[in-house]
Amino acid sequence: MQPAGLPQNVNLNTIKEVMQPRSADEIVKWQDSYAWLAGGTWLFSTPQIATDTLIDLRSLKWPSLEVSETGLDIAATCTIAELYHFKAPADWIAAPLFQLCSRAFLASFKIWNAATVGGNICMSLPAGPMVTLTTALEARYTLLPRDGSQRQVAAIDFVTGNHEYYHGAPGWEEMMRRLGATVLHNEHRVLTRGGDSLVVAGVTDAEGGHFGPGEASRPDLAFAGAPEGTPRILLAHQPRTAFKAAPFRIDLQLSGHTHGGQIIPWMLLVRLQQPVIRGLTEVPTL
Ligand SMILES: Cc1cc2nc3c(=O)[nH]c(=O)nc-3n(C[C@H](O)[C@H](O)[C@H](O)COP(=O)(O)OP(=O)(O)OC[C@H]3O[C@@H](n4cnc5c(N)ncnc54)[C@H](O)[C@@H]3O)c2cc1C
Fold first, then answer.
1. How large is the average pLDDT for residues 191-206?
2. Does residue 4 carry a pLDDT above 60?
3. What is the DSSP letter of 48?
4. 0.90 cut: is pTM over it?
5. Cys-Cys link to 237, which of 5, 90, 161, 281 (CB 3.0-4.6 A)?
6. C-beta neighbour count of 157 within 10 angstroms
7. Is the pLDDT of residue 3 over 60?
């Protein structure tokens, strides 16, 4: 039975509240048990045991698509169907990508019409066609953090995953470089803003070594020469790289690979191989 006050279409039985803010500023605090609700196609497709509150982004009523001086402003809540039907100005030569990437979804009618651009980017699935689209178009994401002011980040940042190796990873890396992406092939960059610095490193996939010595995942090379005492982020496709990277004092590793434990039967077996399959976990350092 649903708690009183929940919209009729919410059947996740851990949810106690669905907030419907008129402005993002109304959400002043954040808890781990909260989740932003966009189209709900993934959120409602699997139990959300750790979630008790949904914040419905659709109530913000952001305009889906607006042509601006710098290009196209796409709301996080724009649906895939809306993007597909967008009529671009005739001189936008990359505009066919909107339709091509929308069609790349392996989606039903329902998903096509409900799933959002922002939801797809935030899911960060390997099959995420909106990630591909926004990276190819050199998009900038606008972030609205709860504890700071609005800021923008480039969509481009790339490390290899295991599937690149099945189809010639060096070629993919070269193509990504030509497109202007920074490929972190066992290397790092120091990012600075104002007086603050951050080390962002990337390694090749944990199984890259099977495809040649130069492809082996090498946290030691990735952090060689990195300044001490500066916060360190590691981009690594598989969570299990955390064990190999532990001696290099990583503050945060960002990984994918496990599909959030969604694929049967791998959701059961993957626990034997990876220290975490979704969410945030602390991996003991040596
Ligand atoms: C049958 C089926 C087929 C699918 N096919 C594909 C496919 O081919 N390719 C693919 O990539 N995915 C696929 N998906 C996964 C998913 O439906 C899509 O990735 C979809 O784009 C998610 O968007 P959404 O708006 O429905 O997100 P939601 O389900 O609402 O949210 C997904 C996650 O992102 C978070 N989130 C959403 N929006 C924001 C935001 N603006 N800011 C912060 N966090 C946010 C949510 O809290 C949640 O954790 C499929 C799912 C199903 C059930």
1. 91
2. no
3. -
4. no
5. 161
6. 16
7. no
Ligand 1 centroid–CA 244 distance in Å is 31
Ligand 1 mean position, distance from CA 154 (Å): 20
In short, whether 83's Cβ falls inside 6 Å of ligand 1 is no
Q: For residue 191, give both structure tokens.
A: 């990012």
Nearest to 53 by CA among 6, 15, 8, 1: 15
Encode pLDDT of 125-136 as tens digits: 777 899 889 988
pLDDT tens-digit series, residues 109-126: 888 899 999 999 988 777
Q: Which tokens is 7 given?
A: 């919209």
Cβ of 105 less than 6 Å from ligand 1? yes
Residues contacting residue 91 through CB under 8 Å, at least 6 positions apart: none
Is 42 a pocket residue for ligand 1 (Cβ < 6 Å)?
Answer: yes
Q: Report the length, in residues, of the chain.
A: 286
156-272 CATH choice from 3.60.21.10, 3.20.20.70, 1.10.10.10, 3.30.70.330: 3.60.21.10
Each domain of the chain, given as residue ranges in start order, spans 17-60, 65-143, 156-272
